TrEMBL record:
The lineage of its organism: Bacteria, Pseudomonadati, Pseudomonadota, Betaproteobacteria, Burkholderiales. One of its GO terms (biological process) is tetrahydrobiopterin biosynthetic process. Pfam families: GTP_cyclohydroI. Its EC number is 3.5.4.16. This is GTP cyclohydrolase I. Keywords: Hydrolase, One-carbon metabolism.
Length: 241
């Protein structure tokens, strides 16, 4: 029997057989857009393609397991590992690369609030771009609104953190991405972010230092120019221990 689609009238698509990742890369290149590990590429993924991407990652992951000389046919524990890992990357831990930003409900600042507001600690779950090891920590966000600042729901800060951190990141760039996003959404007079995290690439492997954490911050607007405001924010963050 012929393998060709005969009576159905189907014609082979010109890009049939092209891996979906290649198609997505071509769109990104045509739009001159980056696809670094910590970039969101959702607008270049067409409906249904995420499932195909998952299949593609599964096949490549199976190759990794084969090269690690793991008998995934004989070993009941690793039989479905390639699929599990693909799902974990695409649908869970790196989801922030592949999905649109969370919808953010914005309210006008009717009461013209202009006092410092702090949200935190919010949980950070990410992974480092270098080894794809977990990065687990906390984040505090300080906002100095003005009369034009949009008020966004408290839970939305956690959703934005989740979206940005759900990508392979380095901590220095992650806080800047988050700051840019919150500035864009709320247009405050000032924004301060402090992040503290444990990097498993430093504890589970490598130097195997269990207690070392990374602490960093980004200050924008009034937090940069007003040391009193900056001190107030830092003093209001509860003891990190
Ligand atoms: N600046 C910065 N470095 C990070 C972050 N996460 C992980 N790293 C570091 O990135 C570095 C990667 O360095 P490489 O020398 O290429 O990797 P490696 O040979 O596996 O290094 P070791 O981890 O020292 O074994 C390591 O020193 C990590 O500790 C981060 O968020 N920011």
């Amino acid at each position: 029997m012929s393998d060709l689609p005969a009576a159905t009238g189907q014609r082979a698509m010109p890009d049939e057989g092209t891996p979906v990742s290649v198609k997505i890369r071509e769109r990104l290149a045509a739009a001159r857009r980056r696809c670094h590990a910590n970039d969101n590429i959702a607008e270049f993924i067409e409906p249904g393609e995420l499932e195909l991407l998952l299949d593609e990652v599964q096949a490549k992951m199976q190759g990794v397991l084969d090269s690690l000389v793991i008998d995934t046919d004989g070993d009941h524990n690793t039989r479905d590992t390639a699929r599990r890992v693909a799902k974990m990357y695409v649908n869970e831990v790196f989801k922030g690369r592949y999905v649109q930003p969370p919808p953010i409900t914005e309210f006008p600042n009717a009461e013209r609030l202009n006092e410092l507001m702090i949200v935190g600690p919010l949980t950070v779950r990410s992974a480092c771009s270098h080894h794809f090891c977990p990065v687990i920590g906390k984040i505090w966000i300080g906002i100095l609104p003005n009369e034009h600042t949009n008020v966004i729901g408290l839970s939305k800060y956690a959703r934005l953190v989740d979206w940005v951190m759900g990508r392979p990141q380095i901590q220095e760039e992650a806080v800047v991405q988050l700051a840019d996003l919150i500035m864009e959404k709320t247009q405050p007079d000032g924004l301060a972010i402090v992040m503290e995290a444990s990097h498993f690439c430093m504890s589970w492997r490598g130097v195997r230092e269990m207690d070392g954490k990374m602490l960093n911050s980004v200050m924008r607007g009034a937090f940069l120019t007003d040391p009193t405001l900056r001190r107030e924010f830092l003093s209001l963050i509860p003891s990190r221990n």
